[in-house]
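Trying the structure run again after the queue cleared.
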Amino acid sequence: MKLPERILFVDVETTGLGSNDRVVTLGLLQMQSSHFARGNADLQHAHLIFDPGRKSHPRAEEKHGWSDWVLRHQEPFAESLPDIEPLFTESGLIVAHNADFDIEFLRREFAHAGCRIRMPKRYCTMEQYRRRYGSPASLDAASSAMGMYRSGATHGALEDAWLALHLFLWLNDLPRPSPHALPLFEPTNLKEAPPPPIEGIPRRRKGEKPTPTPKEPIVDPYQRDTLLAAARQTAIMMMWVVRSKGSVEQADVMALMSMVRDEAKRLGTWRNEELIRDVVRTLAHLRPAPDDVDDAARIIIHDPGARGRLGSWVRSAATAVGAMTEDQRVAVARLTEAFRRLAS
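Done. Tokens:
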């Protein structure tokens, strides 16, 4: 397959599946084909959220995770055209999983914004995967075949575009970048919504039922404390290595989330996504000191299961955003030293 100079990987999340539905979030990743041979993740990217002008179908909202109250405080699609349009016009191929769906919604959004745009040639990873491996050919199924998984229950447009990128490279026997090198996670143009009114959210249109004020997700304090205690010592070791390079990036948080989810599976609470995210938010703010590392090592060394899993999680933290830095090597050596002292 002859590749054009630039390829655009796309995913949209929408208010529903109908002809009057609109785009809620858009994920775009543009990659130069000359980088494929090196497995390079030098990408142009955009992750954007919009006010679709209508309520999402309940199933669609459950899938994309954005409430109508938050969405009505965002800018419309047309406001982002200067950022979006060049990525389409510069690309010679557009890749998506179920490409017809994504492209049709994008055509409509460009039309609503008064912009006529010629879409590049398309490549559908769902069609290609189904031809080679049969069904099921969902993005979840295809990603699982590659050994990759979504970070949570909801579908993020940028994350799904990232999975489509990996699937395209995998299907065409091309080198893939590190699966942990996902760029920005939350939409870059996200505007914070004020607290919703106590009396309920007003109708968007005449005849539409008012939306009840969303309730805060409930996290059981006992489950939270139990999961936090189970994950804390390993998180100290991971964050010691992560913070040694100076900053905490989204890929580092995703590595931490994988560890917490693994602990939640052992405790039987892995279906509670809000619980996992709540614990991750707490652990991601850890700033371990050397004494914290020593204390964590004392606890872990007496737990064979935790000791056996620690190495893989530390490696995951050290390589989340690429090869280890020299500072991270020093940090890992400090962990090894702590266990060596305890064992002697």
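Strands lie at 6-14, 23-32, 44-49, 93-96, 121-124. Worth checking whether this holds up in the mutant runs.
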